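Notes to self after the call with IL:
- keep both proteins in one doc
- input above output, always
- annotate only the second one for now

Protein 1:
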Amino acid sequence: MNRFVRKAGDYFSLVRFSHTVFAMPFALIGFSLAVTKTENAFIIRLLLLIILCMIFARNAAMGFNRLADRKFDALNPRTKEREIPSGKIGTGSAAVFVIVNALLFVITTAFINNLTLILSPVALAVILGYSLTKRFTSLCHFILGLGLSLAPIGAYISVTGRFDLLPLVYSFMVLTWSTGFDIIYALQDDKFDRDNNLHSIPSSSGRKKALAISVAVHLLTFSLIIIAGIYGHGNLLYWTGAALFTALLIWQHLIVTPDDLSRVTVAFQTTNGIASVFYAAFVILDMVIF
């Protein structure tokens, strides 16, 4: 039993399950938009299927990322104790984990509607393909953002079977927001990436310019927050959540500087996790109450 618990813990650590807090709240926003702003009813079964899709897709993406990067992770002092390079999880077991979760994702979409099933291979190509992009382009952060941005529009399509403008605005919000904080996270490995011919904005542009680019991308996020509030007829609760989200965006840029990366983890994980949860809570309450 203890061995099973330890092994389960290794897999939870492999996929950084706690990081689902980034995209999951926005999937719930997409679902809430569909059931409050359209004629579609709230169906608990459908919500559970969407949550399962999020879990399976993220497991496949993170598992593939760790599998693809295992040689680099073994060389990087920051990542050498991760599950695959440390031997806690074998490469064969990790590959099976990725394949099983990818198949479960596709199968789950089949129980939702035809459009989600048709689009499921496209979603997998984006979220799995991200892990390879750092080998040839510094724009890899935007590919990561694109993968996470599928959450709100994917949830909306799961309910309605169609695309609409407002959930797409939320998707672009996620794209710019996650791109900006991934650039900050990549600051930790700028030298390692240059030495190993890996591409990132910090490794190609330097820390100061990378932080400036992150600020610029987050200014786009702020613009999209305003657009979503206006176009979606947000009320007091929406703008309260928007203010909190914006304040936390600003905070993460204040606590990380080119010469001090000691709080990158706080900026990346804690600040953005809190931001997404609070923003989603206020947005959903605003839709439900008003």
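Protein 2 (the one to annotate):
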Amino acid sequence: MNIQIHSLRFDADKKLLSFVNQKVSKLSLFSEDILSVEVNLRLDKGQDGENKASEIKVELPGGILFARKQGKSFEEATDEAIDALKKQITKHKEKMRGV
């Protein structure tokens, strides 16, 4: 699985990159067919408190799954996006099996 992490409007430190990489890697437990994952960590302007967004795009055979979540921290937003993607991956696998 190829993982790309981009930080937009800020420089991510090694601790944050390691956290995101670790969380994204766990998606492989839900599907071994993941081709690539692209993560965009974005610092949004103008919103009080919850201005950190995590956008995750997962490429699978037969489709692309996407989740975008915002939170008070990048870790919180990434956790929520990963949870949403776990559900999407499960549904995608069921759909591909014809269940």
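Annotation: The two ends are 26 Å apart (CA to CA). Helices lie at 14-25, 74-97.
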